[in-house]
Amino acid sequence: MEKILTVVIPAYNVEKYLSDTLTSFLDDSVLEDIEVLVVDDGSKDSTPQIAAEYVNRYPQTFRLVSKENGGHGSTINTGISEATGKFFKVVDGDDWVNTEGFAELVRALKSCNSDYVFTNFYEYYEDTKETKPIVYSDIQANTELDFSAVAKKTQLPMHALVIKTAILKENKIRMDEKCFYVDVEYILFPVPYVSTITYFDCFVYMYRLAQSTQSVSVSGYQKHIEDHLRVCYHVLEFAANYQKQSDADPTSVAYINFRAAQLICSQSTIYSSFPWNDKKRIAEFKAFDAKVRELNPEVYAQSAVLSKKLMLLRKTNFRFYKLIQYLSQKANG
């Protein structure tokens, strides 16, 4: 029986969370329709043993692939290679799904043939135990649309997204390995091959936030700044190459460029999070900004529109960097 959906679980030292993650898929009405592929990324705790328990109990649904540590991107790449489902979704090993909403999604996918599918999701704040719903109420639900119609209205995060597996396999989509922050690559690299998209108005992904050790915390961004920089350059090059193609869709170009500009602003924010008198980081920031302009002038210009502080730094050629940073950090407390 062909699987409707492959869910890839990137799993590295997630023994604290993995049982809850895998249990969240246990809806009897869809177990035969899904493939949950746990990709153990060289864990040193009991992550693979926990996954093996679910494989033994539900062999028709769960699979375990263990590999040497290669980072989040490598687990997704492995998942793409191993996937047998018509559609493909990533759920990180420390997150989970809303079981009822997930089952609703799987049932809906049975009559869907869109290249991209997306759903609502919840942000879960671990420190306060609060949830925040993310809803796409301005998009027509349960109807296949041209990708351009949605691309003009919203930017989709990984947590909302389901991708037709054939797009990933046939176009050899691959993420950077041994690297954090590859979710933007996962979102954008398939875009040149996407024509249709469907929004299902159900809540599926439960995205855990507010862990001090997370790569998306301030300390995480500072620690992994080189990874974020690597992804920035890769996305900039991808965006520049795509818009040069004679058959590049203008709406897709704009979609990719806008997300790339957001990424540049994020990198600028990382540099700005360091002390305002850190000469090493100031020099790195200036060199990064010059490289962005060289690699992709369109994205360079758009990033200044998105960030007034970045625009001011450029207009002053970074001469008043310390003053601008000092005043900005003082204003933000």
Q: Bin the helical content.
A: 40-55%
Distance between the terminal alpha carbons, to the nearest Å?
A: 58 Å
Structural class per helix/strand content? alpha/beta
Q: Strand-residue fraction? A: 15-25%
Number of strands: 10
Mean pLDDT over the residues: 94
User: Biggest β-sheet: count, sense, barrel?
Assistant: 10 strands, mixed
Overall body shape: globular
CA-based gyration radius: 21 Å
The number of helices is 14
Q: Any low-confidence stretches, pLDDT <50, length ≥5?
A: none
Topology as H/E string? EHEHEHEEHEEEHEHHEHHHHHHH
Write the layout of secondary structure elements.
Elements: E1 5-11, H1 18-23, E2 34-41, H2 47-57, E3 62-67, H3 72-82, E4 87-90, E5 96-97, H4 99-109, E6 116-125, E7 130-134, E8 144-146, H5 147-151, E9 161-164, H6 165-170, H7 183-188, E10 196-209, H8 218-223, H9 225-244, H10 250-272, H11 279-295, H12 297-306, H13 308-315, H14 321-331
Structure description:
By secondary structure, this protein is of the alpha/beta class. 45% of the residues lie in helices and 19% in strands. The protein has 14 helices and 10 strands. Strands 1, 2, 3, 4, 5, 6, 7, 8, 9 and 10 form a 10-stranded mixed beta sheet that branches. It is globular and about 65 Å long. The mean pLDDT is 94.
Structural features:
single chain; 333 residues; alpha/beta; ten-stranded mixed β-sheet; 19% strand; globular
